[in-house]
Design goal:
CATH architecture: 3-Layer(aba) Sandwich
CATH class: Alpha Beta
Largest sheet: 5 strands, parallel
Distance between the termini: 14 Å
Length: 219
């Protein structure tokens, strides 16, 4: 961990490339990579596992309080949800319920506090409201934008899906559900990067340029 807090907030819609960029950026900067979406996915998976109704806000909040989030691994250190592997967190059921789980205000408030604690010493943190709600004072704010077609193709590749149309339909439904909770707009001062027209190296270069304007010697 560095003596100077290096905090980068990365926002964007599902499939915009947040995970790929954030993980690489965290590795270069030597700070933890925190995917806040996994926290809500963990809660959706826990609700499925325990049969908790996803509309029951009080029950979901209690379930969230029993989840354990840790920072583990190396190059980079990453967020993990204890007891839930990648398959459990990316299942079709979780994909279809996570937006509903995440829209409850008390759940979001509890998660926000945990996210602030996890990023207190520095991180590259990604989500939909990191620069607007969780860390509005982040020195570097990045907002990733891409067309729905580009995001759908990327998500299909990430999931190893063979039915691109089904993935695109699921992403469209996810966008509509997410927009109810978090209308997606760049935070004031955010650097907007169009990941639909750039490959990962181009995206990374733009992100690092934003980082170097704040921390010239980093990375």
């Amino acid at each position: 961990m560095t003596t100077e807090r290096v905090l980068v907030a990365v926002d964007g819609a599902a499939g915009s490339g947040k995970t790929t960029l954030s993980r690489r950026l965290a590795r270069i900067l030597g700070v933890p990579y925190i995917n806040t979406g996994l926290m809500y996915r963990g809660l959706a998976a826990a609700a499925s596992r325990t049969g908790t109704p996803i509309e029951d806000e009080a029950a979901l909040l209690e379930l969230a309080r029993n989840l354990r989030f840790t920072l583990r691994g190396q190059d980079p250190i990453e967020l993990e949800v204890a007891g839930y592997d990648h398959a459990a967190l990316t299942s079709p059921e979780v994909e279809s319920t996570v937006s509903t789980v995440a829209r409850h205000s008390s759940v979001r408030a509890w998660m926000r506090d945990r996210q602030r604690a996890l990023g207190a010493d520095g991180a590259v943190m990604e989500g939909r409201d990191i620069a607007t709600v969780v860390f509005p004072d982040a020195p570097v704010k990045l907002f990733l934008h891409a067309s729905r077609d580009a995001r759908g193709a990327r998500r299909a590749t990430e999931r190893g899906a063979t039915d691109a149309e089904r993935v695109a339909a699921a992403l469209r439904a996810r966008d509509e559900r997410d927009a109810v909770t978090n209308p997606l707009e760049p935070a004031p001062g955010a650097v907007v990067i169009d990941t639909g027209t750039l490959d990962i190296e181009g995206t990374l270069a733009e992100a690092l340029a934003a980082v170097h304007r704040v921390w010239p010697a980093r990375g």
